[in-house]
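Hi X.,

You mentioned you wanted examples for the new student's onboarding notes, showing what a folding record looks like when two proteins sit in one file. Here is a clean example. The first protein comes first, with its sequence line followed by its structure tokens.
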Amino acid sequence: MGKGLETRERILAIAEASVLAKGFGATSIDEIIADAGITKSGFFYHFKDKNELARAMLLRYVRSNNHLFDDVFGRGTQLSDDPLQAFLIGLKLLAEVMADLPNGHPGCLIASVCYQERMFDREVRAIAANSVQGWNARFRATLDEIAKVHPPHEAVDLDTVADMMSCIVDGGIIMSKLMDDPRRLEKQVLAFRAFVKMLFAPAPASRPAHAVSAA
């Protein structure tokens, strides 16, 4: 990575940490410049304004999440040919990743943008919305594959079940911070895993009743 790319990446990392800690509105360009150890002209060489910074931060955040999902769910697919078992493995691995974060998940950049959406232009809001739609579509496609092999035991809207994944992760992050309990997110992912398992797992075969011999 060249020096210019290293500087850009450092700016994005500092900005993301600040936004997750106190919000986009409370994060100033001057603060980012000071923390990055660069000049104001150096900042504006990379980003012409805060909207461009927000766009780059979101795209970086989305790529990071996509890489994480590719890794954990890809490993699940490698370990099992059954789509349900592969997804369950992936969810278990995802929960382990969340549990391995020493101070809990730092927060959701998408949620930060959503809460302060009036500060951003249409492109920033579209990136946030499209990222969530993309993740929901990803999990919906997985659920469709599972349903082909293991029809759900209840009549459910698979779009809603797919949406639950994003809701549970964001809700788990908020709950973890509010309750000062980093394990809450891990537990929520595992609860979703248990729900998926109950919804799709084949019922255990019933044993035939033993014939009672006549006296």
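Then the second protein repeats the pattern, sequence line and then tokens:
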Amino acid sequence: MSHQRAHLSQVENTTPNIGVPSGPRRFREQRWLVDETIRAQTIEFDQPRLAYHLGPVGDELAPADMAVIRGAVRKLDDHVPVVTGVARRRERFAREAEDAGHPQTAAVHWYAAAQLWSLACWPVWTDEALVRELDDHKNAAYLAWGAHSDHHVERVDIPFGTGVLAAWFHRPAGVDGPFPTVLACGGMDAPREIVVSRAADPWLARGFAVLAVDGPGQGETAIRGVHVTPTAWIEAGRVLVDWLRARPEVDDDRLVCAGTSFGSHWMTQVAATSPVFRGCSVALPAFEPGLRTLFEQASPTFKARHMWMAGLYDDEAAFDDMVAGYDLRPLIREMNVPWQIIGGTADELSPTGWVDELARICPAPSSITRYAGARHSMTDSPATAVGPSWRGLTIDWLHDRALGKPAGDEHRLVTAAGEVVDLPHPRRS
């Protein structure tokens, strides 16, 4: 622990080892532009990462935490010291609450601290010791929250090759299983800690257990050396299904799965090759074969992070060869799990036409809902503000699948006025 304190203290007084002459060429050459964009648009210039992490906290201090980070992070090198400073403040509040005999208050702060430590890891792609320290702090805070939580929180390490898949297993309180269970993941920048909200989580409220996983290339799993490849999630999906089926708390006849952003690609791979799921819901789809828009036209931070996720941060040519293998078309032709896709019509990271193409060739029932004018992060559109909750659509649709309700083809557009308009399904247009 003394070593960790020394290392992180050093981080606060200098800058982390980010942006050294390695990684993708565009990131090296356009680093100045990333910093200028952060200065002009805040750290959420590319996606609402503060909302992803601090939204699930749901207390009155979370907006203040967001404001502090937005105001203080003026360039990429500011990210780690600013975010860790806010995390430490939350940990101090948690210990003070515990000392005063208020475990419920402490739980709120431990959960927030875990989210902040996890957020701090985002741009650390070249300093292995630092990212492990940040992750250790995150785990300690999350386990402290779990000890106070009103539902069961269990750390899970599932053997996978020579490493493990890091996961949190959440079970509803006050009822006995076996439970319908959702296997869930986030995207490139969305670790497993954001999957379950601190309070009033909609999955737990519906009686679902949740296996929130960092798959190959994600979060702690990547930090511990398990990298992403075009097929790693297919192999991981089989291992995760075996683990779920072996748990007595899990009703393995009522399994569903969900993924967001790049998790849409991974969970589609899992569902297409592990047909035990009653439904697969994905949002913010990343379906473009080869992901050229994401890796060559969007912010260079996306490619930098994914090269780290693949263990290829210093070999861009090898990475480019690898991502050429990202293609859902061969798998989707054999998919028999009902499939839901939710996204925006103005997705700047993955051309929306690929949603139509994959739904057209998928033999399983598919439900498509798009929000008019919404970007990849489902922002910048009145449709997402006044229309139905896209997260709510995911949960309700998967709940119906777990109940055994049949799925059918759907294609819907949520207009800027919040109205839902039926459109011809791609198989019939």
